[in-house]
Amino acid sequence: MFELADRFSGALLGTHVGDALGMPVEGYSPHYIRSSFGEVREMLEARLGAGTYTDDTEMMIAVAESLVRKRGFDGEDMAQSFLENFDPRRGYGAGTVSALKLIRSGVRWDLAGSRVFEGGSYGNGSAMRIAPVGCLYHHDLQKLKEVAFASSSITHAHSHGKEGAALQACAVALAVRSGPGRGLDVKEYLAAIKQFLDPGSVYRAKLQLVEELLQGKAPFDEVVQELGHDSRALYSVPTAIYSFLRHHEDFEEALVYAVGLGGDTDTIAAMAGAIAGGYHGKKAIPVRWLQALERGPKGANYIEELALKLCRLHREIVSP
Ligand code: F2R
Ligand code: MG
Ligand code: MG
């Protein structure tokens, strides 16, 4: 029980840590980051303060709160949870803001997401917040996929958005199942992810590239060119999985690497942090990073409480 709770905490706090580490350099190129900051290994000063979180973690909190409150997925409640937590200073994506405005104006939770952009958003906003789903349903990947798709569709109804959220949830789930004690067989891990993906999924080709890149020591530019580093789910979720797998033996190195790739740094590091945290547990997160996190009413302590509640709920679902 203690070990599983530590992994749930690792996944949720890993989201916060990665988000806060990457946030000050979001949108910068790898070269600009390296020449201006060197390796980003400490929480840099930022608009809301060093160690603060952005939309990624705020929405992850909303997902966890709703799952705990409703003892599983409830679309209407999760949509309301997004609205209650919404703080525009955290820097939300335009499509997500539009979907939340539609819901606030009375549009149903399962209709709003498809009215954003052409065919819904394919941004990474529903993948970056999915860690609680990956933890809660790590034992049941079919249920995990169903909940990931439904929770994504509230704001991201495009197939790339929904599949990206499900892929990220699966990556977290497999990490929680594996854990460093058992060692990570990278080939097996990737094979399990590929098996999870639908046969026609566009993510299959990206996962193939991840596997090929892991054979060598590709420089940042090549990784960015092959996998991408922007705010589209297809061009960031595989990048986060790659960052974890490249440095699966060390939580800190995985996140420093993810931020070093530049682009959507807060989000790629938040997703890599969720996977690495689910794998290693909270115990592997550097203390200096944990100490630098937000301490407000919905800060790091609150996130850890949510993780423990999710873990209790998981136990009750598995053994009613
Ligand atoms: N918003 C930001 N960062 C910029 C502002 C931060 C600034 N430093 C600050 O402090 O305020 N980051 C956050 O947004 C990303 C997640 O975005 P989300 O929630 O997916 O939004 P959206 O708008 O739905 O999708 C992102 C972009 O993808 C393109 N796009 C998506 N679907 C599309 C479609 N069907 N057709 C055309 N384009 C589509 C658009 O360019 C969207 O804006 C994370 O980085 C998070 O950290
Ligand atoms: Mg963000
Ligand atoms: Mg971002």
Give a brief rundown of this model.
With 320 residues, this protein is mainly α.
Structure characterization notes:
By secondary structure, the protein is mostly helical. The protein has one domain: ADP-ribosylation/Crystallin J1 (ADP-ribosylglycohydrolase fold, Orthogonal Bundle), CATH 1.10.4080. It is 63% helix and 0% strand. It is built from 17 helices and no strands. Helix 1 (2-22) packs antiparallel against helix 15, helix 3 runs parallel beside helix 17 (300-318) and helix 9 runs antiparallel to helix 10 (186-196). The radius of gyration is 17 Å and the shape is globular. It starts with a helix and ends with a helix. Residues 54-56, 91, 266-267 line the site of one magnesium ion.
Summarize the topology.
Layout: H1 2-22, H2 30-37, H3 55-70, H4 75-85, H5 94-104, H6 109-112, H7 131-136, H8 141-153, H9 159-178, H10 186-196, H11 203-215, H12 220-227, H13 237-246, H14 251-260, H15 265-280, H16 287-292, H17 300-318
Helix pairs in contact: 1-3, 1-15, 1-17, 3-4, 3-17, 8-9, 9-10, 9-15, 11-13, 13-14, 13-15, 14-15
This protein binds ADP-ribosyl-L-arginine and magnesium ion (2 copies).
Number of helices: 17
**CATH T-level topology:** ADP-ribosylglycohydrolase fold
Which spans have pLDDT < 50 for at least 5 consecutive residues? none
Overall tally of domains: 1
Radius of gyration: 17 Å
Which distinct ligands sit in these coordinates? ADP-ribosyl-L-arginine, magnesium ion
* CATH class (first level) name: Mainly Alpha
Distance between the termini: 16 Å
**Percent of residues in beta strands:** under 5%
- Find the count of extended strands (DSSP E, 2+ residues): 0
Relevant CATH superfamily: ADP-ribosylation/Crystallin J1
What's the story with the biggest beta sheet? Answer: none
Instruction: Give the overall silhouette.
Output: globular
CATH structural architecture: Orthogonal Bundle
Average of the residue pLDDT scores: 97
Which structural class do the helices and strands define?
Answer: mainly alpha
What percent of the residues sit in helical stretches (DSSP H or I)? Answer: 55-70%
